[in-house]
Amino acid sequence: MPIPTPEPGLVISYAYLWHDEYGAGQEEGLKDRPSAIVLVVERVSDDATIVTVLPITHSAPRDPKSAVEIPPAVERHLGLDDSRSWIVVSEGNEFLWPGYDLRKRPHTDRYDYGFLPPRLFDRVRAAFLEWRDARRARTTPRG
To answer: Is the dihedral of CA 123, 23, 50, 76 positive or negative?
Structure first.
């Protein structure tokens, strides 16, 4: 299957690098994980596409406002496991598409899980922008 076109709301398989890991000098994410594309910017100067992704995790957030829980029906729709999951909105990775950290999903030839439903994506985007506008969101640059 070809690499998908990056679009807001698409959930991809990605080797996410946590901001704390980046701060400690790591250059590679330790785990491939579902990550939701929240922003896509076309850079006119060189026709590059810059994507910002937010990680999906099973770890409950310490600050409830720092993540949005994924409803079970959406987890099933995306093909995620049955454990509770959250989309972290307090940090993200920014990279040139498709980048070297885009991964195929385990046991498939696909790079994506599908799209978040529009209402859930709108909640995620609004929460991320709220964190960013308060200058608390941390975006880690990746290649």
So the answer is: negative
On whether the CB atoms of residues 89 and 131 are closer than 8 A, the answer is: yes
CATH number at residue 55: 3.10.129
Q: Does any domain span residue 17? A: yes
**Nearest CA among 3, 6, 60 for reference residue 35:** 6
In tens digits, what is the pLDDT along the chain, a chain of 143 residues? 899 999 999 999 999 999 999 999 999 999 999 999 999 999 999 999 999 999 999 999 999 999 999 999 999 999 999 999 999 999 999 999 999 999 999 899 999 999 999 999 999 999 999 988 887 778 887 87
What distances in angstroms separate CA 41 from CA 3, 7, 65, 76, 129, one per listed residue?
17, 10, 25, 29, 15
Has this prediction a pTM greater than 0.90? yes
| Domain that residue 44 falls in | 10-142
H runs (alpha helix) in the chain: 19-23, 72-78, 118-133
Give the chain's radius of gyration (CA, Å): 14
